[in-house]
Amino acid sequence: MKKITAIVREAKTGNTGGGKIFISPIENIVRIRTGEREEKPI
């Protein structure tokens, strides 16, 4: 959670529409250029 706190601290503007951070588990990764799939993300 330290990384999220750092992102919020640096990106916070205090203005409406400043954005949101969505946090979710990543099930797999697909490299668009090659179509390669990784089932266990780093």
How would you sum up this structure, described in words?
This protein has one helix at 2-11, and strands at 29-30, 37-38. The protein has 42 residues and is of the alpha+beta class. The protein has one domain (2-38). The protein is elongated.
Write a brief caption for the model.
With 42 residues, the protein is α+β, with helices and mostly antiparallel strands. The chain contains one helix and two strands, in the order H-E-E.
Secondary structure elements and pairings:
Layout (H helix, E strand, L loop, with lengths): L1 H10 L17 E2 L6 E2 L4
Antiparallel strand pairs: 1-2
Radius of gyration: 15 Å
Return residue spans where pLDDT drops below 50 for at least 5 consecutive residues. none
User: How would you sum up the major sheet?
Assistant: 2 strands, antiparallel
Overall average residue pLDDT? 86
Strand content: 5-15%
User: Structural class of the helices, strands and pairings?
Assistant: alpha+beta
**SSE series:** HEE
Q: Say how many strands there are.
A: 2
Strand adjacency order, main sheet: 1-2
